[in-house]
Design goal:
Elements lengths: L10 E5 L11 H12 L3 E4 L6 H17 L3 E5 L2 H7 L3 E4 L6 H7 L4 E7 L2 H10 L3 E4 L17 H9 L4 E4 L4 H10 L3 E4 L1 H4 L4 H14 L2
Parallel strand pairs: 1-2, 1-8, 2-3, 3-4, 4-5, 5-6, 6-7, 7-8
């Protein structure tokens, strides 16, 4: 993708998990491809433990897989890894690299920023040049159970005050996703509800359909 920042950021955003999408025997690639076949628009490689050199071949293979399906490949946290593999972008949390450094190191790439329940952080991120902002957890998250729960109404307020695409994350299931889209979420980030599904492809397709239903 020559200019990922020009891509329409809307749809299902799946995030890998070392336990749920294991690297052994290439299981992660099989699972991610199923999600892509179902219509996932963005795949984020999230792994804060594995050394960079071990993640390199995984990241390169995931990027190739994403581009096969015209989807975006994002790296969580590591600007260095995103730069080395020429990912479509990076996603930053509060404790990660600064937005300014990410923009310098990854010109023309997508910079996503976690804003939790902090609208002011989102406004600052927009001013600095972020590509999208993420809010959550909206529900108890199996992968991050310690995350505070924030009110759904923040999406409505954010839609009024921001021009950036909004991503909703945290304990989202298929049943919970539609109200979030109706409130203004452009992206729905999912971990457990995708990877634990009996059919990943069918679950991804069901999420993709929600975006068609909510204009």
């Amino acid at each position: 993708m020559d200019n990922p920042r020009q891509t329409n950021l809307r749809g299902l955003y799946v995030i890998t998990d070392k336990e749920l999408t294991p690297y052994e025997k290439g299981k992660i690639f099989e699972m991610v491809e199923s999600a892509l076949k179902g219509g996932a628009k963005i795949v984020q490689l999230r792994d804060k433990e594995t050394p960079l050199e071990e993640l390199l071949p995984i990241a390169l293979a995931l990027k190739k897989l994403c581009h096969k399906y015209q989807a975006l490949f994002i790296v969580n946290d590591s600007v260095e890894l995103a730069k080395v593999v020429s990912a479509d972008g990076v996603h930053l949390g509060k404790e990660d690299t600064s937005i300014e450094r990410a923009l310098t190191e990854l010109p023309g790439k997508i910079i996503g920023v976690s804003c939790y329940g902090d609208l002011e952080r989102a406004l600052r991120a927009e001013k600095l040049g972020a590509s999208y902002v993420a809010f959550g957890s909206f529900y108890l998250s199996p992968t991050k159970p310690q995350s505070p729960i924030i009110p759904l109404e923040i999406l409505r307020e954010a839609k009024k005050r921001l021009t950036l695409p909004l991503c909703a994350i945290g304990g989202i299931t298929l049943e919970r996703a539609k109200p979030l889209i109706e409130l203004g979420a452009d992206l729905i980030a999912v971990i457990s509800d995708i990877w634990k599904a009996v059919s990943i492809e069918e679950r991804a397709r069901a999420y993709a359909k929600l975006f068609e239903e909510v204009a």
